[in-house]
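Minutes, project check-in
Item: structure for the 105-residue chain
Input as provided by the requester:
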Amino acid sequence: MPASSFGFFLTSLTQADVSSVPGSVGRFCLGGAIGRFVGPGQVQNAGLEGTFYLELDLAAFPDPQVGAVPVQSGDTWSFQAWHSDTAAAGVPTSNFTPALAVTFQ
């Protein structure tokens, strides 16, 4: 992602492939109930290296319907980051990182 861009992680138990998200470029790979890691300290700045990370609390994953849910053994959660970006000719936009699926044991 671009240096000094802001962003946050998204998560879902459902995968999707959305090629056109209004106001954004890139592919959105999550579907269903999408949780956003936007609590205190969770919105990140990519700094000069163009990276950010987040330590996860497995007892409290964000869920838009119930607030927070614990990760269960056997769950496969998919993750993707949304971040600010600049399109052609310097036009501000947003973008998505590639998605990653993790099956918890």
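Outcome recorded: The mean pLDDT is 94.
No further action items on this chain.
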